[in-house]
Amino acid sequence: MKKNIAIIFGGFSGERVISERSANVVREHLSSPEFECFLVDIDRKSWKCQTNSGMIEVDKNDFSIPTDSGKISFDAVFCAIHGTPGEDGKIQGYFDALGIPYNNCGVLASAITFDKAACNRYLQASGVLVADSYIARIGHDVDVDKIVERVGLPCFVKPNDGGSSIGVTKVKDVTQMRKAISHAQQEGVDALIESFLSGTEVSCGCITLEGSPKSIGVTEIVPGNEFFDFESKYNHHQTEEITPARIEKDVYSEVEKLTENIYEWLHCKGMIRVDYMICEDGIYLIEVNTTPGLSEASIVPRQAIYSGYTLSEFFQMSVKESLR
To answer: In 3D, which of 242, 241, 290 has the Cα closest to residue 262?
Structure first.
């Protein structure tokens, strides 16, 4: 009998449109003789499932779909929500309470990685290099001089709890700082200001394979714009994403090993992507993504293909691991 898989997408942030792209690709490649896939749109106002009979409201008491022919329950969830509530641990807690398995990281790993400053502090204790930073709390006065003294110029201002480079500004002049912080806080809660890192940007995907973390490739990112912003990420003609990365073999192996270590230190599961800047004095963490983009042009699916998987094999492996 086929397993019913809910592919959840949408969410409450500006990454909603990217989430829908990911979900459609997952459904296309995950549907098989083994799995019956349902798209479930998670919104603040309602949760609705696409069925042959149209859009049906989800019963949140048990995450089921009431239909004329009976209730549809789900054997597992494939999370394609980028941002809240799919990437910050909120919806994971809901599924944990219901006992429904899901394919991505649990509550703790999701919550830690979604708070960039907290994740940096956590991993820094294990020797991971991170940029100098400053947190501008929403509702608090901004001391621009103190920030510049801490991180220098140029610097990056970003939402502490956002993704897809939405709300990110490269600040070159002190007069830009307040506007950049306000912009970041509109997309998230607090603003994270980080010192500028000069080097080669790379990204490494990692999955659970036979019970252990396994890196699936290192991609070099050459943004078409000044940095890897939203336009560069999702208008791929503006940027180069080169797999395998054009870096020394020993550095390539070091990035892979570091990613596998981070996977274990954070108690991750499913698929993650970790972004780095390779600088003269070492490999610096940029951020950990626990629900990476999954469109056919996204980094992790292309790394999966580089590693020898079809997307169908890759997504099915992710669901089977969660069921296991």
So the answer is: 290
User: How many angstroms separate the CA atoms of 195 and 316, rounded?
Assistant: 40
- Evaluate whether residue 67 is within a structural domain: yes
**Co-location of 238 and 121 in the same domain:** yes
Band (pLDDT 50/70/90 cuts) for residue 50 is confident
The token pair at 198 is 């000069």
Q: What is the CA radius of gyration of the chain?
A: 20
Range of the domain at 206: 111-129+198-290
Judged against a pLDDT cut of 90, whether residue 322 lies above it is answered with yes
Q: What is the pTM of this model?
A: 0.91
Look-up: residue for tokens 């009431």? 66
Whole-number Å distance between alpha carbons of 144 and 131:
18
Does a structural domain hold residue 248?
A: yes
- Residues 221 and 116 placed together within one structural domain of the fold: yes
In a domain, 21, yes or no: yes
What confidence tens digit (pLDDT) does each residue in 194-226 have?
999 999 999 999 999 888 999 999 999 998 766
For tokens 């954070």, the residue is 266
For residue 63, give the DSSP letter. Answer: T
